[in-house]
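Risk register update: the risk of archive-format incompatibility is retired. Evidence:
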Amino acid sequence: MGYPDDQLARGEEVKLHTRPHWKEGVGPVLWFVVFLAIGAIAITYTTRLDWDGKIWLVLAEVVIVIALLVWLSVIPWIRWRSTHYVITDQRVMWRDGLVTRESRHIPLARVNTVSYTQNVWERIFGFGDMNIDSASDDGEINLIDVPKVDKTKALLYQLAEDDRARRSAAGDGT
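Archived output:
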């Protein structure tokens, strides 16, 4: 059982589980291809040298390429894959990080305002930044590069209204 299933309350149902827009994963993939190609070309030319110390140069090239791959490709990819935006029928959850985790949860009953921003580029590709303001001490959650941000906002408002109606019906029946 993985995230968010291991964080759900009894009867709680996930309505949306997503991560930042796929454009966040494009850069790391491009850096990976570029540095892999550059490293292969550099190592190929270095091995053709007629020089006794070329093994050290090849080793240095391998170390540099691996360091650049990890820094510009692997770490950003892992960061993207470990960021979760989850909306359930009871709350909004955000979690980020693999080694050091940060997590925020806001009950739907505490959601006051939901807003989002999109520039032209973001509208074309269907994502945006969402700000969820809460009436609790938790403050707000800022979700970056949310896919289908307008539909996500509509879903969140609908779930908040459903939660309010459920709570008021439960309050009237007792």
